[in-house]
Design brief:
alpha/beta; Carbamate kinase; VC0802-like; Rossmann fold; 4 domains; eight-stranded mixed sheet; seven-stranded mixed sheet; 31 strands; about 40% helix; about 20% strand; elongated; binds adenosine-5'-diphosphate; binds aspartic acid; binds magnesium ion
Length: about 800
């Protein structure tokens, strides 16, 4: 036997009724079936409005018109699809029910019946009508149907609108009345009867609870709750699009999720299933083949301390009572609990402060005024005699709960939750210490609860997809990077990735905004809000505990900033940089940074250190991971020198071509660094170190292009003037090479054993570097796996856009 429950969302129109009847039919092929139905969507809300109107003495004529329309549409349209559907008969039945309710309301002043029982009758008519319609649909499919009357069969006590089922008594009723096999059992959800056979209801969403009771009473092996979502999510998917479907849950977790507000399940649903070890599956009526969420007993060793979901309850009333005469504490608390119990008031949580002898009660689903009147009336004596003091009765309190197996005992998880709350900017909150080990609840009166939950949820479940970026250096590359962030805004959004720019700095000033700097007018904001630059302050900001995934992008060539990398990483901040200084520092420093990065599990990425956006480092690393070994390497590693020597071939002088390269942004800030060979040597060192050679910069043999006299010139103008003097030498060198059908190339070379040279050589057509010019870089890698034909990487190795793109790709790598 299986019990299936279809919620209002699954029965909102004729098509859905027909679709549900098909699902039921298909189920009967495998098992006997019992079905619980809810009212069509919106109907119970309308009925609830009618009750509110009664309380305010207002007419509900319009609501009755709307209800008639809903039912009429459903019945009428079903007839369009099923011509044998007894439209008129059903319509008369429905109109009769509505008519009777209208009569009850008209006569309400004269009735002796407790008003709550009348409300229960009113609010439950939708379920009765659903059963009438479905019964006819299934009869048309040739099924025999047994309809259980829940008033006579499901016995419940307590508040007539939030009754609790007496399972034992109910089970006895089923023993008396076992339905025939080959019969589909139908029962209206939400409805039960008390011991006097009066109709009571099980609280909003109570059909889930009805289904669980029916499943227990019929010994079903599964209770399926069919609704409008694929199952239980990490939060209400209406709150966050990032909510994740939970494939399975333990009974305990499901109980807590529903108790603390996951509306997909009525809070009392799971306990009876748990006690009887009946599997519960939440399924989507619109996607019956999806697996849904399975709630069942889980082996202890399968239960991980893991956050499963976040829920909330609002409209909670908080009552704080201080007991002034401590010796009376016991008697008084008993009395207060009794007052609530007798008034059938549901207490969600209680809290006791030993220090102040204050009891706090959190009450659900009640009106503020009722609680106030009740307490001041029943406790009047105690208040007058100064035995107790009612400190506060506050409405609109919210309870946010985070649920997961045993999370209360996991400090790491608690910390994580606290950071997430802090991140949501919720200032006013209070953690409540309740007995459950599987949930943490916080009390707040914050406004905008949905937004806060979304932030907390996304922080807890999607932290991998956010980077909080602090960009240092807004020259060519830095600015190009900001432009790329802006340009790729929608792409990133589509991929569910957020690059939040929290800080922008140049060597003098910085602008920090942890809420995110807008990119369309960042320059204006930067200049209006800048403060003096200080790397320590940036680290302080970036290490704020509530940031997810801070990263500092160093787009400078500064030694000073690279000297702070150890501190940056130690503070658990990732680094992405085209700055080569740290990687060409002493071997010990080089190792130290990597050690720290591994220790704190943060990334230090520098793909753009060599040949801008070309994937050099990643390619080498992947080869070595796969067991490859470098045999030798030869490459044009400088965009500027590639350009300059290309031009030389065309007969342009070295001075002219250097000026042209500078104009195109290919050179280092000081073009002398390119021509001195030091920049190539740095890149070569980085590659050699990647290949495992523990070399220092001084180990690289640099054969400079320029004579020694040039090394001390720092003034750019003088440099270019001096350069003119050697124009001729270079043109001649180039001509000589041409004669031998060769070209000049300034290369970095690694030989076996890690011998590294930077030198000017002549290459012929057979060399892959022969055609590499115009700012292109090319790297030929001979390895165990790549020989005799080398692996060649070729493309622009300098330029703002390609470098920025390389940084962009490193940022994505942090998230991968
Ligand atoms: P039904 O009419 O089928 O009983 P409900 O509206 O009562 O449907 O419950 C389904 C709704 O519960 C979903 O549409 C969803 O918005 C809401 N919900 C709240 N919390 C969760 C959650 N954690 N997972 C899935 N749905 C949730
Ligand atoms: N129809 C009732 C409600 O809307 C019961 C249910 O749907 O479970 O609350
Ligand atoms: Mg529901």
């Amino acid at each position: 036997m299986q019990t299936l429950k279809f919620g209002g969302t699954s029965l909102s129109n004729a098509k859905k009724f027909l679709h549900v009847s098909e699902i039921i039919k298909n189920k009967t092929k495998d098992t006997s079936v019992s079905v619980v139905l809810s009212a069509p969507a919106k109907v119970t809300n309308y009925l609830s409005e009618i009750i509110e109107n009664i309380q305010c003495n207002q007419s509900s004529e319009n609501i009755f018109i709307s209800l008639k329309k809903i039912f009429n549409n459903i019945i009428y349209e079903i007839q369009n699809f099923q011509i044998h559907f007894p439209y008129q008969k059903i319509l008369n039945k429905v109109n009769n029910i509505l008519q009777k309710i209208q009569e009850i309301i008209q006569d309400i002043q004269n009735t002796q019946e407790d008003i709550n029982y009348i409300y229960a009758k009113i609010i439950s008519i939708g379920e009765r009508i659903s059963i009438i319609i479905m019964k006819e649909l299934l009869i048309l499919k040739n099924f025999s149907i047994f309809v259980i009357d829940p008033i006579k069969t499901i016995i419940a006590t307590g508040n007539p609108l939030h009754a609790t089922v007496e399972l034992q008594e109910t089970q006895n009723n089923f023993k008396k009345n076992i339905p025939l096999k080959k019969t589909i059992i139908l029962m209206a959800g939400f409805i039960a009867g008390n011991q006097k056979n009066q109709l009571v209801t099980l609280g909003r969403n109570g059909s889930d609870y009805s289904a669980a009771i029916l499943a227990v009473c019929l010994n079903a092996h599964t209770c399926e709750i069919w609704t409008d979502v694929d199952g239980v999510y990490t939060t209400d998917p209406k709150i966050s699009k990032k909510a994740k479907l939970l494939k399975s849950l333990s009974y305990e977790e499901a109980i807590e999720l529903s108790y603390f507000g996951a509306k997909v399940l009525h809070p009392k649903t799971i306990l009876p299933l748990f006690k009887n070890n009946i599997k519960c599956v939440i399924k989507n009526t619109s996607a019956p083949n999806n697996e849904g969420t399975i709630i069942e007993k889980q082996q202890k060793n399968h239960l991980k301390n893991k956050i499963k979901g976040i829920t909330y309850l609002d409209k909670i009333i908080m009552v704080q009572i201080k007991i002034l005469k401590t010796y009376e504490s016991h008697v008084i608390t008993k009395k207060i609990f009794l007052i609530f119990f007798e008034s059938k008031i549901q207490i969600l949580l209680t809290q006791y402060s030993h220090l102040q002898n204050i009891y706090t009660f959190y009450i659900i689903g009640e009106k503020y005024q009722k609680i106030q009147e009740l307490l001041y009336h029943t406790l009047k004596n105690k208040i007058d005699n100064k035995i107790i003091e009612i400190i506060k009765i506050e409405k609109n309190i919210k309870v946010i709960s985070v649920i997961g197996n045993n999370i209360k005992n996991d400090n790491k998880i608690i910390k994580k939750i606290m950071y997430a709350i802090q991140y949501s900017n919720m200032n006013n909150f209070n953690i409540i210490n309740h007995i459950s080990q599987n949930s943490i609840s916080i009390i707040t009166n914050t406004k905008n609860i949905i937004k806060k939950i979304k932030i907390i949820h996304d922080r807890l479940f999607n932290k991998k997809n956010i980077l909080e970026i602090f960009l240092i250096g807004i020259g060519g590359v830095g600015s190009a990077l900001i432009q790329q962030f802006s340009k790729q805004k929608f792409w990133l959004k589509n991929k569910n990735i957020k690059f939040k720019i929290c800080g922008i700095a140049n060597s003098k000033n910085m602008f920090i905004n942890l809420h995110g700097i807008r990119l369309d007018d960042w320059r204006k904001n930067f200049y209006q809000n800048q403060k003096p630059f200080c790397i320590k302050t940036i680290i302080q900001y970036a290490k704020k505990k509530y940031l997810y995934n801070p990263v500092i992008i160093d787009c400078t060539a500064s030694q000073k900033i690279s000297d702070s990398y150890d501190k940056i990483l130690s503070n658990k901040i990732h680094i992405v940089t085209p700055n080569k200084k740290a990687n060409t520092n002493h071997w010990n420093e080089y190792k130290k940074i990597r050690k720290i990065a591994i220790k704190v599990n943060k990334k230090f990425l520098y793909e753009t250190n060599v040949s801008a956006g070309l994937p050099v480092i990643t390619t080498l690393r992947n080869l070595f991971y796969a067991g490859d070994k470098l045999i030798s390497f030869q490459g044009i590693l400088s965009g500027s020198l590639s350009y300059i020597f290309g031009k030389l071939e065309e007969g342009v002088s070295i001075t002219e071509s250097t000026k042209m390269a500078q104009k195109l942004g290919f050179t280092e800030p000081n073009p002398k660094d390119d021509l001195s060979g030091i920049d190539v040597a740095r890149k070569l060192l980085i590659i050699a170190r990647e290949a495992g050679y523990p070399l220092e910069l001084k180990d690289i043999d640099i054969q400079p292009i320029l004579p020694k006299e040039f090394f001390d010139i720092n003034d750019e103008k003088i440099f270019f003037k001096e350069l003119q003097k050697i124009n001729k030498i270079f043109l001649e060198k180039s001509k000589k090479a041409k004669k031998n059908k060769k070209v000049l190339r300034y290369i970095g070379n690694i030989q076996s054993g890690g011998i590294c040279q930077v030198k000017l050589i002549e290459v012929d057509k057979t060399n892959p570097l022969y055609n590499v010019k115009n700012g292109e870089n090319a790297l030929t890698i001979y390895s165990n796996y790549y020989q005799p034909i080398p692996l060649v990487l070729r493309g622009y190795g300098a330029g703002n856009n390609v470098t920025a793109a390389g940084i962009f790709s490193d940022l994505l790598q942090i998230l991968s």
